[in-house]
Specification:
0% strand, mainly alpha, 264 residues, 72% helix
Length: 264
C-alpha cells in the first residue's frame, strides 16, 4: 500500500520533468506553475508514504537504505517548497524534479527495502539525529541545484549564447545569495544533527562518525573560505556540486541494525 503512494509521488515529479523537456524541445521555456503544482502534489504523496510507513514501524521511517533515499527526496522537495516561492525561483523546480525522480526511481527498483527486526523501542534523540541530518542533506541538495543554475547562467553569459531558459534564471547575485543561505541552513541543521547524535545514549558506528565530521568540515571550509573571500562565487557553486556528490555517496556507508541507525 505505501509503495503505491510512492509510485504516484514519483509520477508527479516525472510529470514536471516531462513538461520541462517538452518546453525545452519547443525552444520556448516559460515560468511554469505546472511544475510547482506537480512538485507540491508529489510532496504530498511523499509525506503520505512516510506517514504510513512510520505508523507501521512505530518510529521515524529511517530503518533501511530505501527509507533513507525516500526521506532524502522528501527533504529536497520540502526545502524547495520553502525556498522556491520565497525567492521566486520557479525554475528551480525544473532542476529539482529530475533529482527526486532519480532518487525515488532508484529506491523503487533496487532491492534495498530490506526490513530489519526491531528489538528496542524508538529513541527520540537517535531519530532526531537521523531526520535532521537528512533535512540538512535536502538543503545541501538545493544548494547543489542552485550551483548548477549559477554555472549554467554564467556559461551562457560567457559564451554569449543565450537560450530561452536564460531569461528565467535569477540574476547571478541573487542566485549566489540563495546558495549562501542554503549552505548556512544546511550547515546549521547538520551541526544540530551531529551534536544530537552524542545524546542518543548508544554508541554510534565509528566510521559513520568520521564520515559525518568529514562532511561537516567540508561545508565549514566552503563557508569559511567564502566568508574570508578566498573563494569566488563560481568556485562556491562548483564546490556545492562536488560536496553534495561526496555527501550523497557516503549514504551507502550507513549501517542499520535493530539497535541503531545513523546518517553520516
Amino acid at each position: 500500500m505505501d509503495r503505491y503512494l510512492l509510485v504516484v509521488s514519483t509520477v508527479c515529479f516525472l510529470a514536471a520533468v516531462v513538461h520541462t523537456a517538452i518546453e525545452l524541445r519547443a525552444g520556448v521555456f516559460r515560468p511554469m506553475r505546472f511544475n510547482f503544482f506537480a512538485v507540491g502534489l508529489g510532496f504530498i504523496f511523499q509525506t503520505a508514504f512516510l506517514s504510513v510507513r512510520g505508523h507501521e514501524l512505530g518510529r521515524c521511517p529511517l530503518t533501511n537504505l530505501f527509507e533513507v533515499f525516500i526521506f532524502l527526496a522528501w527533504s529536497i522537495a520540502l526545502i524547495y517548497m520553502l525556498v522556491g516561492p520565497a525567492y521566486r525561483l520557479s525554475l528551480m523546480g525544473a532542476f529539482t524534479a529530475p533529482l527526486v525522480v532519480l532518487l525515488q526511481g532508484f529506491a523503487l527498483i533496487a532491492p534495498i527495502d530490506v526490513r530489519h527486526p526491531i528489538k528496542l523501542p524508538a529513541n527520540s534523540w537517535l531519530e532526531f539525529h537521523a531526520s535532521v541530518s537528512l533535512v540538512a542533506y535536502g538543503a545541501f541538495a538545493l544548494a547543489c541545484i542552485a550551483g548548477v543554475m549559477y554555472l549554467l547562467q554564467e556559461r551562457q553569459l560567457k559564451t554569449h549564447q543565450l537560450h530561452s531558459i536564460f531569461y528565467h534564471l535569477p540574476p547571478l547575485a541573487n542566485l549566489f545569495a540563495v546558495i549562501t543561505r542554503l549552505l548556512w541552513w544546511g550547515f546549521i541543521l547538520y551541526t544540530a544533527g551531529i551534536v544530537s547524535g552524542f545524546f542518543t545514549g548508544r554508541p554510534l558506528p565509528r566510521m559513520q562518525v568520521i564520515a559525518a565530521i568529514g562532511v561537516w568540515a567540508l561545508y565549514a571550509a566552503i563557508l569559511q573560505g567564502r566568508h574570508l573571500r578566498k573563494i569566488a562565487p563560481k568556485q562556491v557553486a562548483a564546490l556545492c556540486i562536488v560536496s553534495f556528490s561526496v555527501a550523497l555517496s557516503l549514504l551507502w556507508g550507513i549501517t542499520f541494525s535493530a539497535q541503531t541507525h545513523s546518517v553520516p
